[in-house]
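User: My advisor asked me to double-check a structure prediction for Serine hydrolase before group meeting. I don't want to rely on an old file, so could you generate it fresh from this sequence?
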Amino acid sequence: MPRRLHQKRKNHRPKIGLFILIIILLTISGIYIEHIRNQHSAVEKAASAKLTHSPDTTAAQIVEPKDAVSARIEQALVEKNFSGTILIFRHGQIILNKAYGWKNQAKRIQNTVDTQYCIGSVQKGQTAYLIMQAVKAGKLRLNEKLSTFFPQIPNSKNISIKDMLNMSSGLRIDEKRIGALKTTDTKEILNETIRQTTVAQDAGYSYQPVNYVLLAGILEKLYQTDYNTLFDKIIKVPMKLNETSFYSEKNTNQTLSYSLSAAGPIYTPTAASSYADELGTGNVFMSAKDLYTYLQALFNDQFLTNPERTKLWYAYPGEKYASGLYNMTNSYHTRGVKARFETVADFSKDGQDGVLLLSNVWNQPKGYNNLAGQLYKIVATNT
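Assistant: Sure, here is a fresh prediction for Serine hydrolase from the sequence you gave:
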């Protein structure tokens, strides 16, 4: 009996060994398959990341007219002897992004799609965005009073942040007195603005840039840093705006501006202090592509949710202006004019269609405001 048992156990040993070997081989195979899957996944993720970031990291590209609509628009610009950059988008796709005219006529350098233009008062919308980010961070409320920050300004206890965003605060200032300072020291400009600010009895809508200079000052108080640094940290870097800067005569990416005469475009230098006066209101330069990227970001929940946009862009009854934008019937409109630069943007309320026109030659009696509106109508209605 013991011998039989011993033989039986001996006969099972090869089977047990084979079973163990199979388990080992299956385990090794599983590990290898998982390794291959991980490698494949890593490659896919890397490719996805490259596709996701490539539009932000590559230089802006010329987009020739892609259809009859964009071809018609280009023809209209050529007929107007347009100098600057145009960017048209339709159904969320850029159908025209092209530059015309001289960036530096004396040196025979032409404008390109990455040329930067002063956007003037379009910057007010960016200051308003910074205010909304402060609200999101719990640093501020839209109904908070101006007196919290600058109690020395008349009637400040009755003026809210939202009133200032909508330019319905009654605040006024003699801008010539600020210009007379001829300084680039923003602290001096802000302090003098506070000293010179008065208030009108009628607090209805009135386009007064002083509102946004003071909003810039409030932001500096809230964050304990200068406006330019805050702009770069909260707008430029997160939105990956690589063709955006503040005025600098040494920045060769910024185009010169010209006025038109019988002899052709004439360049007249603008003092650095004139740009510095526009604290929070009009001293930013952008390419058309960066302006497009910024406007698209405003419709991205990562930057503004729909309720936040609604609050920020809400215009008071009977008024149209709010936070740097004019709330039109079926679109938004913003415009900036500074030192012979003109920037106009008209875009749909879902951000899918739009016309961005950035010019460095003032060659129309009333600028390009009406033309931009006509071009937007072509884009929006395809007529």
